[in-house]
Amino acid sequence: MPDRVLRLQRIARATAVRAPARRPVMIAIAGDSAAGKTTLSGGLATLLGPGRVTTICVDDYHRYDREERRKLPFTALHPDCNYIGIMEQHLQLLATGEPILKPVYDHRTGQLARPELVCPGDFVIAEGLLPLHTKLARACFDIAVYLDPPEEIRRRWKIDRGVGKRGYDKHQVEAELQRREQESADFIRPQREYADVVVRFAPISEREDPPGTPLSAKLLLRPTIRHPDLSKVLAGDRRWTIHLKLDREENGRPVDALHIHGYAPREDSQEVEKAIWAQLGLEPGDPIHTLGHLANGERSEPLAITQLILLYHMLDESR
Amino acid sequence: MPDRVLRLQRIARATAVRAPARRPVMIAIAGDSAAGKTTLSGGLATLLGPGRVTTICVDDYHRYDREERRKLPFTALHPDCNYIGIMEQHLQLLATGEPILKPVYDHRTGQLARPELVCPGDFVIAEGLLPLHTKLARACFDIAVYLDPPEEIRRRWKIDRGVGKRGYDKHQVEAELQRREQESADFIRPQREYADVVVRFAPISEREDPPGTPLSAKLLLRPTIRHPDLSKVLAGDRRWTIHLKLDREENGRPVDALHIHGYAPREDSQEVEKAIWAQLGLEPGDPIHTLGHLANGERSEPLAITQLILLYHMLDESR
């Protein structure tokens, strides 16, 4: 029946001509549970504004609710526990400017709720556990980010959130982390390989930070996409705040490692932010203050600078 | 950014090559509330088997739940009350053999529930209020059917169902019918024009049927698709049971009107059914008894014959 498909394509195209779908810039933010995905994406979404950015969480593609999962031999991290094929389909639709009716998983109740209409803005941020799991899903993104905190820090974040925000006790969260470990290793962490930018918030290993020092950030800027020319920003007197180091990954591939120091004086970091902001061709002004917000209400300059680097890529792709 | 779309298409195609999506035969059964859509489609689905047939109800694309609709100036019949664009998108996906995550409207509770995965079988029956509302939706179907009972009969069916099965009182159902009338006229009945087959169950007007006589059926077989050659079935001595009449529609277009008489003796009708069955190239056997079942548990030979005509089209398109 090729005639019907032809007719379908012709009519679909004729319809599209009336309102041509604009292809949005697609960014993936992948990482394990409590790796800081929402903290990273939230600032970008706020800065660009909800009218321009559409954020989706691909954990909404969970196939089972919490109750059903209890009887299953795998956790929510397992691809079989998610509608991966539908996630791919929806990412393709968004990448070509089409709306989707997205499923909704309610983290609060653990239930699957009524789906919601999502129309892509100029930018689509897809964050979650498995956005980079398949080749087709990866092909949907212009920029792929993987959040890679050291496990002990992620555990602490996971426990803080589980106990504070979701009302579990510490042992419950620890048991859950234990239950998920094998699937993290099998399905979540392998996505790190496919990221254009790997982001690691951690203390600097070379020195002992005094208590209360914000975490530093290390960004692997892989040559899979064209990164901003930071030579002006990285002028000699800023090495204390930020510096770029040519490195090799474990697999031997060359990579740029951008180090952003949490111990640098805040005003120095903010100078760097302004310099990147200017290089983005943006007007000096307010929006920059929407970056760098941590979930606990505190401010992190390394987070703000990381967000600016990602913002660079988003704006660059949209040009 | 055309490069990304190219890459997407290439990877999507490479993935599809591994498991080529088979394009199903698509049939629409459109009609107003309580026009008999499920009765008509149910027999076909049972006969062909759930493994081969996928039935979806496009009323699942309701945008609002019953509670929300109370505050709105239109009823569930209005296109604005439905995700028509998503319905089109999902019909296109099904028509090209792709799965969908279909929204679910629960008629019992009036709420929107968690969506469900639908993988198209060899045949997809899409029944509901608005499957033929847009050009793109219509382009998805191989066979389009519109159910067109006289309004007084549909009202009786609607009241019977509303009172018996859904627990409303008669006046509530009548008020609802009243509230929906304008939108029926504006959006539901115009779909009749786009059907390949218009089905009307009604008493024969030329004579007074004794009480208890099953309804007759009149099928407009429009020349928009190739209809079965019924010349053998319509041999002279069967005129009492079934006959074909060349006619003109109100707009002047030529049409074949197939009359199937409810007052014909059951054995005569069943002879006709067997003749059509044989012409379909199917083995004589049991499955034929799954046709003709009314919602009240009774049997209607005109319904069975109507279903056989539609079955002819479905099998014909699949060859």
UniProtKB/TrEMBL annotation, chains A, B:
Origin: domain of life: Bacteria
Domain Phosphoribulokinase/uridine kinase: 26-203
SUPFAM superfamilies from the UniProt entry: P-loop containing nucleoside triphosphate hydrolases
Pfam families reported in the protein's UniProt record: PRK
Stretches assigned to coiled coil: none
InterPro entries: P-loop_NTPase, PRK/URK
NCBIfam families associated with the record: PRK07429.1
Protein name per its UniProtKB record: Phosphoribulokinase
